[in-house]
Design a protein that fits this description.
mainly alpha; Serine Threonine Protein Phosphatase 5, Tetratricopeptide repeat; two-stranded antiparallel ribbon; two-stranded antiparallel sheet; 65% helix
C-alpha cells in the first residue's frame, strides 16, 4: 500500500513538472521552442489517454469531437496554446475545489481521531487518521498523530514509516523527528534516535532544552541496556550474589506468607544488593512487581495502626528501595513510575512511626541528589502533600528538620517545581510563612533550618520575582526582621531574598525604608563580603529608583559617595551596574553632584560606558549616570567657546534620532552603540577642569593610556571627552 501511494505521488509530481515546462516553452521568445511545445501539447491532448488522480478522485478527459471548427493555419498555434492553458486553468480550479472539500473532511476526521486518542482508544484513533489520509494524502499532522498512536500500541516500525511520510510532506517537521526518535529509542536504535533529536535542534535551536532532555533519555536507556547485558553475563557465569538475588526474588513470589517471612527475605535481598549488577538483576527479574504487588506487604503499608511486625516489613522495604536505587537511574524511574508511589511516600513522611518517617525521608533525599532524580520526584509525587509533610518535620529539633528543608531546597531548583509553586501559591503560602514565623521564635534552635529555608525561597524566585504581592510582602517582612540577626549567614540570605522580593511592590519598599533598610545595607557594604555586597547594592538601587527619601539617606550615610565609587571599581559587573544605577538616582538630589567635583568620576563612568563590559546594562547605567551628573552640576557641562556659539565640526554625525557626537582631536572617543540607540540622548564634549589645549591624545599601548572597545582614553589628560546628556524623562534601567 505504501509503495502504490508513493508511485501515485511521484506520477502526479512528474505530470506537474511536464505541464509547467510546456507552459514555459510556449511563452518562449524562440519560435522553434514554441512550435515544439505546441506539437507536444497536441500530442498530449489528442493521442494520450491521460488519467489524473487527486485524493482518490479520478478525472478523465473526453476527447470525442463533433464537427470541430477548422482554424486557419496562421491561428493554429495561438488556438492550441489558449486551449491548453484554459484546460490547465479549469483543471487547477477543480483540483482546488476538491482539495478544499477534502481538507474539511480530513480536519473533521483528525479531530475525531484526537478524541479517540484522548480516551485511550488508539485503534479507533488510527482508523480515523487513516480515513483522513485517504481524503488528503499530504496532511503531515495526520501522519504524526497516527505515528503517536502506533507508539502507544507498541508498533514502532509503523510509527517510523508514518514519520518518514510526514517528512516528505514537510522536511522541517520537528514533531515527526520527535516521534521518530522516540520509536527508534524503543527499537534500541540509539544512534538513529540521537540523530533524529539532533535534527530538531538544527531546525529550531530554541528547542535546545527539550532536545537536551530527549538526548539524556537516550543515554539513560542505552546505559540501562548495557547494564542488563552485563548482569545477565554475571548470572550465566554463576556469580554467588547474582544467583542469590534471583533465588530470593523467586522465594518472595510465594503468596500469603507471614509478614515475618517477607521481612526476612527482604533483609537478605538488601544485603545482597551492593553494586550495579545486583540492582539490574533485581529490575530484570521483576523485583519491583514482586514487592509492590504482594498483598501482605501492601496491607502492611496501608494499615494505620501498625504492629511491630508490620512496621518491620515497611522499614525493610524502604531500606530495600534505597539499596536498589542508589546511583541507578533506571531503577529510580521504575520505582517512581509505580502508581502507588505518588501518594505513598508523602504519607509515610507524616507517619506516627518514627522509623518510617526517617527511612522515607532518607529515600527522598537520595533521589533528589541528581537532576534526574529531582525531575522524577517533581513529576510523579503529590507535591502539595509532600510540602506539607516536609514542613511537619519542624516538630523535630534535630538533623531531620534540616534534612527536610534541604530536600525542599533541592526540589526548588527544578523549573517544574517553581511552576507548580506559583500555581499553588495560595495553598502553600501559609505553610512556608508559618515555618518562617516559627523559626523566628527560636532562631538559635532552628538556625540550620532557617538558613536552608531562606535558600529555598531564593531558589524559588531565582528565575523571576514572585507575581503574588501578598507573598512578596509577607516574605519581605520576615526577612526585614531577620536583618536584626547576629548570624552572618542568616543576614546574607535574608538580604538575598529581600533583593528579589523588594521590587514587587512600592508598599514593600516604603515599609523597608521605615525599617531602616538603607542604613543596614550601607553597613553591609562597609563590612560584608562579595555576596552580601551584591545583595546590598541591589537593594539600594531598588530603593533609590523609586523613593526620594532613600536617595537622601544614601547621600547622608555615604558622604562624598566613597562606598559607591569603590563599588564602581569592582570586577563584578552586576555590582557595577547597580552601583551606577544607584549613583545616577542620587544625582537627582540637589547639590549632590558637587561632592564629586574633586574625584575622577567622569573618567570612571566613561570607561564603563565605552568599555568592554559583557553586560549591556553596565554601559547603559554608567552612561545615564554620567548624563545625570552633567545635568545636575553645571561645572560638568560643555564649556562655551570664547567667540560665542561654537561652529559645528564638519565631522559631526547624526547617530540616531536625538543623538549627535563630536570627534575630539586625533583620537575620537565615541559613545557605545547602546547609547546611540537611546532616544533623547545628546552626546557633547565635556569640560573636566583641564584646558582643552592641554589635551594630548596618546597612542594605544603607551603608559597611562587604556583602550576600550577600539576607543582610546588617557587617564591623565582626559580633558575633552564625550558624555551623554540625558534629557527627562529618564528611562528605567535593568536591575539584576
Amino acid at each position: 500500500m505504501a509503495d502504490d501511494h508513493e508511485k501515485d505521488l511521484q506520477k502526479f509530481l512528474k505530470n506537474v513538472d511536464e505541464i509547467t515546462s510546456l507552459i514555459q516553452e510556449m511563452n518562449s521568445d524562440d519560435p522553434v521552442v514554441q512550435q515544439r511545445a505546441v506539437l507536444e501539447t497536441e500530442k498530449r491532448l489528442l493521442f494520450t489517454e491521460e488519467v489524473q488522480e487527486e485524493d482518490g478522485c479520478r478525472t478523465t478527459l473526453n476527447k470525442t469531437m463533433i464537427s470541430p471548427p477548422q482554424a486557419s493555419p496562421e491561428n493554429t498555434d495561438e488556438i492550441n496554446s489558449e486551449a491548453f492553458l484554459a484546460s490547465v486553468e479549469l483543471d487547477a480550479k477543480e483540483r482546488a475545489r476538491r482539495r478544499r472539500e477534502n481538507k474539511v473532511l480530513a480536519d473533521a476526521l483528525k479531530q475525531k481521531g484526537n478524541e479517540a486518542f484522548a480516551r485511550g482508544d488508539y485503534e479507533a484513533a488510527i482508523l480515523c487518521y487513516s480515513e483522513g489520509l485517504e481524503k488528503l494524502r499530504d496532511m503531515k499532522v495526520l501522519y504524526t498523530n497516527r505515528a503517536q498512536a502506533y507508539i502507544k500500541l507498541g508498533d514502532f516500525q509503523k510509527a517510523v514509516v508514518d514519520c518518514e511520510w510526514a517528512l516528505k510532506c514537510d522536511e522541517k517537521c520537528t514533531k515527526a523527528y520527535f516521534h521518530m526518535g522516540k520509536a527508534h529509542l524503543a527499537l534500541k536504535n540509539y544512534n538513529v534516535s540521537r540523530e533524529c533529536y539532533q535534527k530538531i535542534l538544527e531546525i529550531n535551536p530554541q528547542l535546545q532544552t527539550q532536545v537536551k532532555e530527549y538526548l539524556n533519555q537516550v543515554n539513560l536507556r542505552e546505559k540501562a541496556d548495557l547494564q542488563e547485558k552485563e548482569a545477565h553475563e554475571l548470572l550465566d557465569s554463576g556469580k554467588n550474589t547474582a544467583v542469590t538475588v534471583k533465588n530470593v526474588l523467586e522465594t518472595l513470589c510465594k503468596p500469603d506468607q507471614t509478614p515475618l517471612f517477607y521481612a526476612g527475605g527482604i533483609e537478605i535481598l538488601t544485603e545482597m544488593i551492593k553494586d550495579c549488577p545486583e540492582q539490574t538483576l533485581f529490575r530484570t527479574h521483576n523485583g519491583f512487581s514482586v514487592i509492590g504487588e504482594n498483598e501482605v506487604i501492601r496491607r502492611c503499608f496501608s494499615t494505620a495502626g501498625k504492629d511491630a511486625m508490620e512496621e518491620t516489613v515497611c522499614v525493610s522495604v524502604l531500606r530495600l528501595w534505597q539499596a536498589v536505587c542508589a546511583g541507578n537511574e533506571e531503577n529510580q524511574r521504575l520505582l517512581l513510575l509505580r502508581p502507588e508511589m505518588g501518594g505513598l511516600l508523602p504519607s509515610l513522611l507524616t507517619s506516627r512511626v518514627l522509623g518510617l518517617r526517617k527511612q522515607s525521608l532518607a529515600l527522598l533525599l537520595q533521589l533528589a541528589r541528581t537532576d534526574h532524580g529531582r525531575s522524577l520526584v517533581v513529576g510523579h509525587l503529590d507535591l502539595t502533600r509532600l510540602l506539607e509533610a516536609l514542613v511537619s518535620f519542624l516538630d523535630f529539633s534535630d538533623k531531620k528538620a534540616n534534612s527536610a528543608m534541604e530536600l525542599l531546597t533541592d526540589l526548588a531548583l527544578e523549573e517544574r517545581f517553581q511552576v507548580w509553586f506559583q500555581a499553588n501559591l495560595p495553598g502553600v503560602l501559609p505553610a512556608l510563612t508559618g515555618v518562617l514565623a516559627r523559626c523566628e521564635e527560636a532562631v538559635d534552635l532552628f538556625r540550620d533550618v532557617l538558613y536552608t529555608l531562606l535558600g529555598l525561597v531564593m531558589n524559588l524566585c531565582l528565575q523571576s520575582p514572585f507575581i503574588c504581592e501578598v507573598w512578596a510582602v509577607e516574605v519581605s517582612r520576615r526577612c526585614m526582621f531577620l536583618l536584626n540577626s547576629q548570624d552572618g549567614g542568616i543576614l546574607t540570605r535574608a538580604a538575598g531574598v529581600l533583593s528579589r522580593t523588594l521590587s514587587s511592590s512600592r508598599k514593600i519598599i516604603e515599609e523597608a525604608l521605615r525599617a531602616g533598610v538603607v542604613k543596614k545595607m550601607i553597613k553591609f557594604l562597609k563590612t560584608g563580603g562579595q555576596t552580601a555586597s551584591r545583595y546590598a547594592v541591589k537593594i539600594l538601587a531598588i530603593c533609590t529608583n523609586s523613593q526620594h527619601e532613600a536617595r537622601e539617606e544614601v547621600i547622608r550615610l555615604d558622604q562624598k559617595f566613597g562606598i559607591l565609587l569603590k563599588l564602581l571599581s569592582s570586577e563584578d559587573e552586576i555590582v557595577v551596574a547597580n552601583a551606577a544605577l544607584c549613583l545616577g538616582n542620587c544625582m537627582e538630589v540637589p547639590r549632590a553632584a558637587s561632592s564629586l567635583l574633586q574625584t575622577d568620576i567622569v573618567q570612571v563612568l566613561l570607561r564603563h560606558a565605552g568599555g568592554d563590559a559583557q553586560k549591556t546594562a553596565v554601559q547603559l547605567n554608567a552612561g545615564i549616570a554620567l548624563g545625570k551628573l552633567c545635568t545636575a552640576e553645571p561645572r560638568y557641562a560643555p564649556a562655551p567657546s570664547r567667540g560665542g556659539p561654537r561652529q559645528l565640526h564638519p565631522g559631526r554625525r547624526r547617530a540616531s534620532r536625538g543623538t549627535m557626537w563630536w570627534p575630539c582631536g586625533g583620537w575620537a572617543s565615541v559613545p557605545p552603540r547602546t547609547l546611540w540607540r537611546a532616544p533623547g540622548v545628546l552626546v557633547l564634549p565635556v569640560h573636566t577642569g583641564v584646558r582643552p589645549s592641554s589635551y594630548i591624545p596618546e597612542r594605544p599601548g603607551l603608559s597611562g593610556s587604556s583602550e576600550r572597545g577600539g576607543r582610546c582614553f588617557s587617564d591623565r589628560h582626559l580633558s575633552c571627552a564625550l558624555t551623554a546628556i540625558i534629557f527627562p524623562p529618564f528611562h528605567s534601567l535593568l536591575l539584576f
